Amino acid sequence: MIVKQFGITPDGAIINEYTLSNRHGLEMKVINYGCTITSLKVPDRVGQFENVVLGYDDLESYLNSSHYIGSVVGRYANRIARGRFMLDGKEQILSINSLPHHLHGGARGFDKVIWSASPFENEMGEGIDFNYLSGDNEEGYPGNLNVYIRYLVGHENDIIILYLAETDQPTIINLTQHSYFNLSGGKENIMNHDLMIHAHHFLPVDETIIPTGEIRHVHGTPFDFRSGKLIGRDIGLRDDQLLIANGYDHNWILTKEGEELSHAASLNDPISGRLLDIHTTEPGIQLYTSNASIAGIKDTIYPAHTWLCLETQHFPDSPNHIGFPSVRLEPGNQFRSTTILKFSTI
């Protein structure tokens, strides 16, 4: 493992970059600002390595970004309508950072804080343990929340992401990893990526991308990825849900039993042969097809639909929908979640 200084924040805090690798040459770089994955180099079918995630090579770009690039987001990943929810009969009021809603933890969510970092190595591979104490009323959330994130780069070209959290008051929690992927290394857009999602249902959204509460079957819709299809096949259809978001920005309800670790999705770039399989204990996955242009390294501007996010999570706006899986965390209980990203070639 290699550790070096990545940059210094305006208030003088040192941000370090950790380079983790395995015996096959897979290499992931991470900084302790936002638990952010800045680079992830994986091989194609002929052994050529390329970076398959969007990232920056300087701290200032991350400090100024509003796109959650490569970071862990929370306390609540995704949106909470109008930044309000009820908890034990009391209305909780959160910060509003994506009018008119609360998004990905607020103006200073987990992507914008400095985490303590403890590198380690064991028989499974190289890893980092991150820790952050989110104080009571931070961005409006009740309770002191102690959060632990582990990244492990395994020798089977798998990246294991473990989430743990404990609270001293009843609160809500929903964490995810927000990397933007392009298995061609960004040389092509994602329209010819083949995607499969293990889900029979998805959550339609209103014009502000908040779930309506309807659980809709994917059959006969552009949201049917059960057998796998090119992302570009249906994304341009005159479908009301696609028009709202200018693409996909929706949550799928994964077909699974309970909280067991199970296969959620597969993403393949037919040209390079790179394949990403995602396993998770979470009940949902959000596909975001980067529906507006976005800046990359050295101010490179990528058009819409060049990158995509596959965010394992609980459902958006769950605290305001009785029928959605609970995101409540009680004192004395522990929030636990696992997601595995496994890379291979075909």
Q: Structural class, please?
A: mainly beta
Distance between the termini: 29 Å
Number of domains: 1
Report the CATH topology name: Beta-galactosidase, Chain A, domain 5
Per DSSP, what share of the residues sits in E-state strands of 2 or more residues? 35-45%
If you compute it from the alpha carbons, what radius of gyration comes out, rounded to the nearest whole angstrom? Answer: 19 Å
Write the layout of secondary structure elements.
Elements: E1 2-8, E2 14-21, E3 27-31, E4 36-43, E5 49-51, H1 59-64, E6 72-73, E7 79-80, E8 84-87, E9 90-93, E10 102-103, E11 116-122, E12 125-134, E13 145-154, E14 158-167, E15 171-172, E16 176-177, E17 194-197, E18 199-203, E19 216-217, E20 229-230, H2 240-245, E21 249-254, E22 262-268, E23 274-280, E24 284-288, E25 294-295, E26 301-302, E27 309-313, E28 328-329, E29 335-345
Antiparallel strand pairs: 1-2, 2-3, 3-4, 4-5, 6-16, 7-10, 8-9, 11-12, 12-13, 13-14, 14-29, 15-28, 17-20, 17-22, 18-19, 18-21, 21-24, 22-23, 23-29, 24-27, 25-26
3D structure, described in words:
By secondary structure, the protein is mainly β. It has one domain: Beta-galactosidase, Chain A, domain 5, CATH 2.70.98. It is 3% helix and 42% strand. It has two helices and 29 strands. The strands form eight sheets. Strands 11-12-13-14-29-23-22-17-20 form a nine-stranded antiparallel beta sheet, with no helix packed on it. Strand 22 and strand 23 (274-280) form a beta hairpin. It is globular, with a radius of gyration of 19 Å.
Outline of the structure:
By secondary structure, the protein is mainly β. The protein is 3% helix and 42% strand. It has 2 helices and 29 strands.
